[in-house]
């Protein structure tokens, strides 16, 4: 298959929206504010910014560059670089696609709940109170039905391909996400209590700074840029050769970080507005209520306390969350789809439906055995597999790929790069510093 058959992003803007869409997800809108609230506010924020710039960003450039060089799915791209050991290269590609599928299988369940919480106020307004209750009450039937709905949305986009599906929908949805964010932040700031939240967010409590905060910040940055599982690699493979990769990756990282920062501006003040309205946000020990409850208990209670305005705000908030989740889930599904399509020479339509169905089945199994499986799958894929695969990509780029071939690839779209400080530092940095830093994250739980 030649590269022209496989689709391409049609513009730099489209690529940035798609890649930022992959990066901006529940990790930003939910994970980041929760971590910040429980880890000393700006103390966490500052360490996170550091990790983003020093670890995640160089790795984002690495994944995009490997993908663009390959002009193919992650399995084939890795094989093309690791010519001396193609079976091992292919094996890592397969592990990446399995990990991406695992992430999608639990992410789709969470996204299903968000759909439920977004539809519930609508059901309430039209008088279907029983339905509204069902939508927000934990149960296997609800969990599975809403996951099916979310997976259908993901398949709907991915089966249309790179420019007509992924690029088009990311370019439509990401601006909506920004507008919803700004509107919600603007509204929350008019409410009593918001300033307390802002203070908690922006005044660093340095007594929280310790090794585990640093490790959490690193893991969060890595998760947030969708690194490790080949998603950025496959998006990179749809990038044309005249794009300046380091610059474009910088813009993606800035959007991702900016959205995480905005999520903090929304969620932390909202928590204190909720407190002002009588919602409990701290437990008896004075600790913040757990992260799941923050989004599914504290915020809905806040919206309830706001009357009709609260219904509208609730719908907007959960719509925002579903959009963030959808632009990430299409990137996750694209990893196995591109592999099946190209390696097994299958049509995209068929590959998307088969894989969407298979991953949905995994989601249903997880949903039916929720307590036993959910945390297990989430932890195995994001805490262990993502960082470990990141080490593999750093090794592939730094130790296996020849420096000249790497230079030739990255020079396209950036002819002067050889003279820049970037080229003097980055390959060395990805070769030594990134794998070492990621291994520290990985090793920490065992220490
Ligand atoms: N970055 C996404 C978020 O912040 C989550 C994510 C992790 C992801 N790994 C991924 C998205 C792989 C797409 C592909 O929620």
UniProtKB/TrEMBL annotation:
Query: What is the name of this protein?
Result: Sodium-dependent transporter
Q: Which InterPro entries match?
A: Na/ntran_symport, SNS_sf, YocR/YhdH-like
Please name the source species: Vibrio chaetopteri
Q: Does the keyword Magnesium apply?
A: no
Specify the protein's topology with respect to the membrane: Multi-pass membrane protein
Q: What's in the keyword line of the UniProt record?
A: Membrane, Transmembrane, Transmembrane helix, Transport
Task: Reply yes or no: does the keyword Plastid apply.
Answer: no
Task: Output the superkingdom of the source species.
Answer: Bacteria
Compartments it resides in: Membrane
Q: What are the transmembrane regions?
A: 12-30, 42-67, 88-115, 135-158, 170-189, 209-240, 252-274, 312-333, 354-372, 384-402, 428-446
- Please provide one cellular component term from the Gene Ontology annotations of this protein: membrane
């Amino acid at each position: 298959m030649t590269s022209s058959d496989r689709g391409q992003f049609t513009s730099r803007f489209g690529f940035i929206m798609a890649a930022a869409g992959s990066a901006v997800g529940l990790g930003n809108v939910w994970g980041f504010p929760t971590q910040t609230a429980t880890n000393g506010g700006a103390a966490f924020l500052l360490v996170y910014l550091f990790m983003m710039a020093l670890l995640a960003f160089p790795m984002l450039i690495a994944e995009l560059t490997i993908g663009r060089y390959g002009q193919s799915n992650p399995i084939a791209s890795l094989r093309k670089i690791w010519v001396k050991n193609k079976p091992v290269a292919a094996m890592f590609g397969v592990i990446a696609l399995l990990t991406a599928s695992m992430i999608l299988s639990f992410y789709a369940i969470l996204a299903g709940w968000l759909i439920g919480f977004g539809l519930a106020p609508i059901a309430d307004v039209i008088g279907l109170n029983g339905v509204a209750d069902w939508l927000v009450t934990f149960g296997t039937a609800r969990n599975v039905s809403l996951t099916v709905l979310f997976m259908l949305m993901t398949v709907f986009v991915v089966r249309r391909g790179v420019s007509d599906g992924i690029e088009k929908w990311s370019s439509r949805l990401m601006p909506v996400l920004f507008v919803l964010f700004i509107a919600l932040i603007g509204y929350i700031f008019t409410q009593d209590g918001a300033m307390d939240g802002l203070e908690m967010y922006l005044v660093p409590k340095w007594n929280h700074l310790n090794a585990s905060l640093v490790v959490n910040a690193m893991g969060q940055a890595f998760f947030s840029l969708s690194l490790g599982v080949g998603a950025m690699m496959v998006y990179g493979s749809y990038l044309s050769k005249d794009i300046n990769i380091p610059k474009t990756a910088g813009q993606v990282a800035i959007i991702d970080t900016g959205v995480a920062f905005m999520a903090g501006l929304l969620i932390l003040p909202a928590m204190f507005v909720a407190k002002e309205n009588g919602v409990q946000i701290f437990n008896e020990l004075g600790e913040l209520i757990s992260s799941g409850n923050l989004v599914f208990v504290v915020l809905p209670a806040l919206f309830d306390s706001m009357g009709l305005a609260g219904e509208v705000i609730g719908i907007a908030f959960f719509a925002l969350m579903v959009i963030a989740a959808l632009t990430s889930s299409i990137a996750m599904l694209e990893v196995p789809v591109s592999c099946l399509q190209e390696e097994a020479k299958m049509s995209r339509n068929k590959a998307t439906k088969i894989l969407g169905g298979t991953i949905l089945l995994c989601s249903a199994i997880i949903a039916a055995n929720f307590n036993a499986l959910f945390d297990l799958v989430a932890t195995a894929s994001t805490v262990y597999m993502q960082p470990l695969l990141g080490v593999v990509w750093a090794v592939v780029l730094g130790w296996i790929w020849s420096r000249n071939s790497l230079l030739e690839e990255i020079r396209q779209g950036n002819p002067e790069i050889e003279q820049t400080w970037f080229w003097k530092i980055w390959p060395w940095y990805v070769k030594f510093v990134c794998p070492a830093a990621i291994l520290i994250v990985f090793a920490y739980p065992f220490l």
